[in-house]
Design goal:
The chain is mostly beta strands and about 70 residues long. The chain contains one helix and six strands; from the N terminus they run βββββαβ.
């Protein structure tokens, strides 16, 4: 797999890498203006505003080639 490219703004299919307040990493997928990710209570589909409040760092990576 090719390394992802850090981008300033996400588009559909962009990987969202987040860091919690206690420095743990979490990952999701950007789609239709929201982030699809898993939590302890199940799958979540949340708006970006909510994600930026929950995580101290939010970065976006585009990966075009998954082969």
């Amino acid at each position: 797999m090719e390394q992802g490219t850090l981008v300033a703004k996400p588009s559909d299919g962009t990987i969202v890498l987040m860091m919690t307040l206690d420095n743990r990493h979490h990952v999701g997928l950007y789609y239709c203006g929201r982030v699809l990710h898993l939590s302890e209570i199940g799958s979540r589909f949340e708006v970006m505003r909510s994600m930026k409040r929950q995580y101290k760092k939010v970065r976006f990576y585009d990966v075009k080639d998954f082969s």
